[in-house]
Amino acid sequence: MTVRIVHLNGAVFDALAAGDLVAANSASPVPLSEYFAGPEWRSVWRMRSAQVADDPASADWVTGVIWHSERELAVGRAGYHGPPDEAGMVEIGYAVDPAHRRRGYARAALESLLSRATDERLVRTVRVTISPENEASYDLVAGYGFVEVGEQWDDEDGLEIIYERRASCSTTCR
Fold this sequence. Notes:
This protein is 29% helix and 28% strand.
């Protein structure tokens, strides 16, 4: 399966944040389904809209579309929370539309994001945060060299366990 992360621009983020699929699709480089403009992801789009308005260059890093190239289908969202910070850390985020789950899209998106992190000279550490109840996400990242380094409270998602790995890590290093 071939997926790629298709980056979006401020106009798409603005439209998705407002739940306006027609406007989002008129500005998007790939067609988006109704789920993208639905209520479940709207807070992410609002956050990315504000972020890209403040720092337009961050659009190349933040949440994009998981695009299944052969099927020409948007199946989810994935990206980093932003460009590398001063310490060279990026945090990964991903979610797959429920209609397309359990088909390997999250894994393919994770591998794509890890590959980019490895290739980016400014990135030294990759982070992912996962709710303790989200066994599927933990099972996904467990085989990619992530180790638990702490926990945090997220106002939207609650308790999250923080996992990190070196960006230059192979998929099996610890």
